[in-house]
Amino acid sequence: MSGSTETANISSLGKGDSLHQQVLASFPLCHMTEEDLIQNPQFCKLLATLAQHVDQTGLTAPLKTELDKAEKKLQIQKLQWLRSESLHRGLQEMIQNHCVRKHHATVPPDQNMFYETMERCLLVAQCVRQLDPSNTTNQDQPSVLGLTPQLVMELMPSEKNVQRMKQGLPRQLEKHLKEKCLSLLSYYQPEWENESEGLKMTKLSHLSAQMDKEKKRAESLKETCRENTVLLQRQTELYLTELIKCIQLLQSFILNHRLKIQTDLDRKKLDYFEGKCELILQKIKAEMVEIQLDTYTPDSISAHRKIREKLESELKACKVEKQSVELKLASFEILGKDFEALAEEYCRLRQEIEMKNWALKEFTQYND
User: Do 254 and 124 share a domain, yes or no?
Assistant: First the structure.
């Protein structure tokens, strides 16, 4: 029964791509992609079922209700604190402004007494609060220099001055707050600074609503920016995934076609270098002919050619004779070392015969 209910809930969410998109929208804080959900369908069903019980932040409905109550209570306490804190700071600013005015101009005695009484009351109240923290904590604190709240309260101004200060305080505080509000209005809209006071007060009454409107607009833009950031992250992940696939495809294409492309490239390079070498050879030949024409006359070139032909024919005859002698020498070397000794003896005897023939010829010449 529970299984059929969950199936119905999943069907209500959507099917196929719409289901994946709704699951991703229900959990924007999770770094998931649609491909992850496609590869894990059971996990996708689990998230789709879980989305019926939790919000986008992962909180259940009862916990969300308790959290909202706690936040409202905290907002009320913060508002109370802000009211007292703003009032206290306003009174301190009034005292500071009075001190500045007192140094630059003469202040009436009653006004001077008013601010001195207020300053003294604030100091006494602050000291009493420091000495008696029972209103904020349940722990006892040791006394400071043996002082007690009762002793500090004795430093309060006279009751008459306090009552007089309390009577004039609302008017002075209202005046101070009015000046601050007008300063805030001038800072927020400088073009309103030269307007009349009545028009300023009218615009000031609408300032809070206008600032709330702009605050909501800023929050809306912030939420839109957050959604765009999440969308950008998903699109970036998808882009990187597709980019990796393209790179892998490109690598396979390069590996499959590299040899063919390399062969064609090598053949083209070889044709290029062959053509370049042929061009260089033709250029060398042309330079040689040009050098010959610049160096020799046609008659000397003809004579050199005849000399070259004669030398080449003699060289060819010498090579033939050398080849025949080498063949004879090779045939003699086949007979071995014994023939080598016999050949040496033959050479020696021939040299002696030549020497004796030369001596005989010379002797015969001198006898004649």
Answer: no
